[in-house]
Design goal:
Length: 174
Amino acid sequence: MTNTHTAKLQQRYKELLPRTRDLSLLVLKGHLCIEEQIDALLEASCDHPRDLQDARLTFHQKMCITRALGAWPKHGPFWPFVKGLTRLRNKLAHRLEQPSLKQDVDAVLKTFWGEEYKEPTSDQNRATVLRNTIGFMGGFLAGSAIGRKERLAAMEASWRLSIGRVPTPTTAVS
């Protein structure tokens, strides 16, 4: 990922994920930020990305497709973290108040950080860890999208260079 792209993404996340202790806001907006990057990754993987809009894919379907494309590591914390964040988002979408939100956020963060995760000493610390983890995930997905675009462009350039050297049905006949 270029420095310019990284700076733009960091600025966007700073604007969208404010420094707040409001875990509900961070879960909802953070999930949207991650979905935005998953959409970019899907678009980078397609020759005709506009056709994706007609498919009206659910978030889970988008996740599964990007995983099938090899955009997610097979093992590691990425997939469980986003699945956990999605469960939290769904809970918040159906119930305005979640008395177990702090514990639920801790559980999701633990899926990402494992044994390194220590329960925060304050609500602000918990919110900061959540915001930073969401930002890290967004950066990972954005980097995957850019890498995919670059690989596809290199493959296309290679293919175009080889067109003149590959015998076609009309040139193969002597």
